[in-house]
Amino acid sequence: MTRPNIHPGEILAEEFLKPAGVTTNTLAAALKLPREHLDAIVGGRQAISVDTGLRLSSYFGTSDRFWLEAQLAYDLERARRRDGAAIKNEVPPFGTVA
Question: Is the pTM of the predicted complex or chain greater than 0.85?
């Protein structure tokens, strides 16, 4: 069984915004970002950039790596699921090619 690959926007919504009662409008104003940008992140349509990650970390008091590591983990798992088998077939391990 494959575990779901959770976008960091879902983490933002479920673990930070909802418990705190903060809307994306309020967060966007506090972070000095367009609301549409945060809506796209929460909706899983936009990645968390370094700039946005730093802003979220400052606002929520998380480490400055928290959001970027969540994004990296999501992106890596997504690529592994989408392309991992093909890459493994295309690229031999070091030392196995004559």
Answer: yes
